[in-house]
Amino acid sequence: MPAVSMKVNGQAVSREIEPRTLLVHYLREHLGLTGTHVGCDTSQCGACVVHMDGRSVKSCTLLAIQAQGADVTTIEGLAKDGTLHPVQAAFREHHGLQCGFCTPGMVMSAIDLLKRHPKPSEETIRHELEGNICRCTGYHNIVKAVQAAAASIGG
């Protein structure tokens, strides 16, 4: 079995894996980082979004070996010294979550969105988050949370 090595949430990791192991399963099963969720295995729902080398990716459609040498950030890697990332804080403050299943992927996608669009319109937010499905909230508070995060980050 090949070993795959990468940096995850700032820590160097290496594990022997089956070549067909998906990145989402590497994170959850081999590293115990269960904040990244498996929702559909077809890249439709966005619950598995993580950042790889600074860009959001759907980890259910990437083989772990494709992340060899990459810098991966999961939802667990966002808070620093007990302080939530501004997007996490905005989701909490503006009730941008209900059951929480989609929230990690939604937050990771929103962070990437705000890197590319520091002052997004409501239309831009809705368009950019189309790849993330939420079955609970109706998206209104998610949009409000992203707008609030943009303002707090300085967008």
Structural account:
It is a single chain. By secondary structure, this protein is an alpha+beta fold. It has two domains: 3-77, Beta-grasp domain (Ubiquitin-like (UB roll), Roll), CATH 3.10.20; 86-153, [2Fe-2S]-binding domain (DNA polymerase, domain 1, Orthogonal Bundle). The protein is 33% helix and 15% strand. The protein has helices spanning 23-30, 86-93, 103-116, 122-128, 140-153; strands spanning 3-8, 11-16, 49-52, 55-58, 71-73. The chain has a five-stranded mixed β-sheet, covered by helices on one side. A hairpin with a 2-residue loop joins β3 (49-52) and β4 (55-58). The longest helix is centred in the last third of the chain and has 14 residues, at 103-116.
Question: Main traits of this protein?
Answer:
2 domains, 5 strands, 155 residues, five-stranded mixed β-sheet, 5 helices, single chain
- Based on Cα principal axes, name the global outline: globular
Question: Runs with pLDDT <50, length 5+?
Answer: none
User: If helices are DSSP runs of H or I spanning 4 or more residues, what is the number of helices?
Assistant: 5
Into how many domains do the coordinates divide? 2
- Largest sheet features: 5 strands, mixed
Biggest sheet: strand arrangement: 2-1-5-3-4
Structural class: alpha+beta
Strand content: 5-15%
